[in-house]
Amino acid sequence: MHFHVWLRFYGELNDFMRPERRGRGFGHQLRERASVKDTIEALGVPHPEVDVIIVNGQPVDFAYRPRDGDRIAVYPRFQSMDLGDLPRVGEPVPDPVRFVLDIHLQKLASLLRLAGFDAVVLDDDAAIAARGRADGRVVLTRDLELLKRSEVRWGYWVRHTDPARQFLELVRRFDLARGAQPFSRCLRCNEPLRAAARDEVLDRLPPRTRAAFDEFHVCDACGRTYWRGSHYQRLRQFLESTLDT
Ligand SMILES: [Zn+2]
Fold it and tell me: What pTM did the predictor assign?
């Protein structure tokens, strides 16, 4: 049996749409009575990006099965769009926000850690989805199929490809400026840093650094020592300019 529905995607969900479907309603032929979740994902939109679904003026959940003639409006998460008290299909993102990223976003993970955010990197899709669900982490990826996995509860498709622009994108989308704690986390292994006295780290420092700095942090997981050298100044400028925008 074939039947016809009318769909419209709002806001950032248009990023997943073919150009002729962006910003306007379009007719769509369904061959079988799949759930509205499967219908939306078949059109290219991963379910974690969806917040509210309205069918013929009434909110529905992901399990709703569209009927012939339905008019379906789909609204995004992760952007400031006031939808009032409408029932959501997505659960609120845990606060403070934590992330699990696929291996292709390693540089973005380093920038998130630089700003103090918990950002785990894994290379296996099943492990990423499971970790996100178990820990309440937002899955970050550019792989749409990963986001469509049913275990993914919180997830976001990173639009940009350049790491600095990706970071800025996340700052805006997840309102990261308010939760940032720069230079509090190891860039290599994601563990929180602790302050250390010069005596403790002396033998790990280049000679010039020993004399020039008196504030040090160490990662107990990997033993790396951090101090406020020229690299630090550059990164601080990057963070300040990004978090202020
Ligand atoms: Zn470390």
Answer: 0.92
